[in-house]
Amino acid sequence: MKRFLFASLFILLSTASFAGDGYKITIKFSDLKDSLVYLAHYYAKPLPTLYKQDSGRIDKNGVLVLQSKEKVLGGIYIILVQGNQRYFEVLLNNGDNMNITANSEKLPQSIKITGSPENERFNKYSNYLIDFGARGKKLEDELKAAKTKADSEAVYTKGKDMSKELIDYRMNYIKEYPNSLLAKIFNAIRTPQVPEGTHYLPDGKVDSNFAYNYYKSHFWDYFDFTDDRLIHTPVYDQKLDEYFNKLLIPTPDSVEKEADILLAKTRGRTELFKYTLHWITNWAQSSKIMGLDEVFVYLVENYHMKGDAYWMDHETLNKYIDRARKVAPNVIGNVAPELKMKDVKGVEHSLSDLKAKYTLLIFWSPDCGHCMTEIPKMDSVYKAVLKKKGVKVYAVRTEGDEAKWQDFIKKNPGMEEWVNVWDPEHHSDYQSQYDVYGTPTIYLLDEKKIIRGKRLDYENIITLLDILENKEKKAAK
After folding, report:
1. pTM (2 d.p.)
2. φ, ψ for residue 303 (rounded to 5)?
3. Judging by DSSP bridges, how do beta strands 75-81 and 86-92 pair with one another?
4. pLDDT tens-digit map of 158-170
5. Sequence-ordered list of residues with C-beta below 8 angstroms from that of 35, at least 6 positions apart, any chain
6. What residues pair up with 66 in beta bridges, in sequence order?
7. What is the phi/psi pair of residue 36, to 5°?
8. Is CATH 3.40.50.720 what the domain over 2-117 is classified as, yes or no?
9. Which residues 6+ apart lie within 8 Å of 53 measured at CB?
10. Read out DSSP for 48-89?
11. Which helix (H) or strand (E) element contains residue 166?
């Protein structure tokens, strides 16, 4: 039922030609005087994220005029009253001139609009949604009171009928006003309807992935990427979130391909392109999924560094580029940058010379509190499992007292089998080569010293090794 209420955000927009740029909104409040009012708009996200466009004060007669002669991008706009505690939505397009009467205690039911047939139709839809929500709440109460399976099924049937009713309302509106903003929003939030029945592969076997593949491939079918007004609705961010976090296979190749497709669709649209590039880049950079930092590097190299991030100032752009350059050498699939460091006796050890089926590269410090708990656990995993799998450890002390370092190794005797080194002359540049901005930082390298895993811990290292070994077995068949 909660999904039904999402529809209350959506309204109508006229696509007629207007006499001039800007807008004029005259509002007469029956119950307010001398109060500050804001005009705001959505920017891809639902409430409470809003961006203020204009403001004005209600006069002693309850009248407010919000006016601008500057060109404005259409979309769903919000009138915020009573200290931003109450609000109502209108459709505002470039050139609009409308009159509104309202009672702030009875929003949005009290709203009456002239000069905008689109918003008049919105009021009808808004009132329908109020009734729809009340009926939905009644169904929730019925479901809670259901005592038998038959009772519950009866409620679910009513819910399905209500859902179809709402969909039919939207589809009828799309047919009647196909070029309106509301029609475009209704299309944008449409979910693909997977064909019913059993579906088969060419070899006659049941296609168990049909529903997923169909839903994913048709996810963006009705979203109009040519209309920047959709950025001033609360739709796009949720669409991106569902697509990238729930539908895409989270591998660099898959994500990079889909990013290119969406950016190509939005290119030429100022706001949609900007938001798409910003969203995907930051999503990839902050993702906890191993390997997706490669996507961040890809986007910076192929878009930001080629002038597409037009909204960024020089300083911000350079931060992105600098971050990408730090990540680029150590993305999964690259050969690990060489390291040559000395052990406690001053003997130099080269990472590339360490012969092992797998090498665990660990950056840690005896002054790091998290290391003090994580490294002994990794030592236990090494002794119990990793050693038998042919894993060797190249452990780099990043900082800290030398005596504490040696003492810690003695207290964890399994570590004495590791190659324990440090870089007293600071010749290795390991911080930038391996993007070591915190400790412990752990990488897994294969026999050829190709990076197979990064940002690991004692809990997921075994799982990663099992995955790699299974891939190796399948490739050998």
Report:
1. 0.84
2. -130, -60
3. antiparallel
4. 999 999 999 999 9
5. 29, 57, 58, 81, 82
6. 25
7. -80, 135
8. no
9. 39, 40, 41, 72, 77
10. T--EEEEEEE--TTSEEEEEE-S----EEEEEEETTTTEEEE
11. helix 149-176
Q: How many Cβ atoms sit within 10 Å of the Cβ of residue 21?
A: 12
CB 81 within 8 A of CB 35: yes
Q: Which residue has the tokens 């203020």?
A: 52
Q: What is the pLDDT of residues 323-347, one digit of tens each?
A: 999 999 999 999 999 999 999 899 9
CATH homologous superfamily of 340-476 equals Glutaredoxin (3.40.30.10)
Which of 24, 61, 28 minimizes the C-alpha distance to 39?
24
Query: Does residue 107 contact residue 113 with C-beta atoms inside 8 Å?
Result: no
Token duo for residue 170: 């939207």
The H or E element spanning position 138 is helix 117-145
Distance CA 109, CA 112 (A): 8
Q: What's the one-letter identity of residue 237?
A: D
Give the integer Cα–Cα distance in Å for 394 and 363.
9
Which letter does DSSP use for residue 339 in this model? -
Q: How many CB atoms lie within 10 A of CB 456?
A: 21
* 145 phi and psi angles, rounded to 5 deg: -85, -10
